[in-house]
Amino acid sequence: MSRTIRNNREEKKDCFIALLNRPWVTKADDPELYQSIRSHYQELRDWFQEYCGFSLLLTRQLARLEKFPGQAHDWMGLELLSEPLDYALFTYCLWYLESKNETDQFLLTEMIEEIKNHLAGSRASLDFTLYHHRQSMYRALKQLKELRVLVAVDGDEAEWARVGNDKNVLYECSVLSRYVLRHFPKDLTTYQTPESLGELTYPDDQEGQLRRRRHRIYRRLLQEPVVHDWDWSQDERYYVLTQRHTILEHLSARFGLEGQRYREGLILFYPDHSAEMDLFPTAKNISDLVLLLAGEIRRLLDQPGTGLYTDERGCIPLTLAELEGLLLRLRERHKSLWSQQLRQAKSNELARELLDHLTGWGLATVNSEQMVSLHPALGRWNGNYFTGEDEE
Question: What gap in Å lies between CA 250 and CA 154, rounded to an integer?
């Protein structure tokens, strides 16, 4: 393969990965990548439309892939928003910005007053003399700044959130405010459930159903860390089983993803670390703890009398008390290598942090009775500390 062809393939792969993982690519911030997307626009647009049902928007300022999940999960929310009110205020801020042109300047208090007037008479009730409401608005504003939809010209919303209207902030509107929300094919009032927001309109024939299935499968494989066989419908599982070679070829050529068919499902991974995406294990200490737990579970399963077993799905059921016991034993064994925060954490706090990490990466679930189910994909990991003694 010539160097030119190889470079062209890598260039296109960079475009696919960036569009999938970034909210947008702007000409001002990344002119080289933006130009690459423009050069390969037709191929990028056609592939994402054919296999995911995503639309690729290209303007003179930016390239944006309109993404939505094959299946929504709690961890898919915006990073800085934590409560329903945060999301509501984030959306109302975008509503306010619709009336603004690029580089228009306005005060935070002006935006707040207009939002309150807009909601007057509705069931929604906002009172920014309440600290809790100001904190929600602060998180919404911070997320908008993180996305570069808002630019703070003077002032700091953290001070306003702390003391209220005695402080103010001067903002400038960005052209990006027009592209945050997804464009829906139908009026929003016609959608009956939150799940239906993620569905496109397909012809009611065999071809339409095939496209629906293909789109959902590729969206989930690209946007979720792991999808076990039991997560698929019967038709979807049949497609993944019979088309796995084609799926792997597509995902390898476009995104650099590698995959392997295991008993529990088709597991995908990136062979090289990339700054474009969040990968497991993360750089956080809690990921190290997950790897240690995976190794400990593997060793205990090989020993008789531990009480651990795998169910018909290959999952390992545990009570919260059993999980806490495992973590306490790991801490006692490795405490000299743990951070002060992990050494001093209460066992229930440590278990909760670990479970949040596991469930966020699709490696465990917790049912309504607080029973933990460790997924078989966790068994593909095995962690231990490397010490000087290991060299001898």
Answer: 48
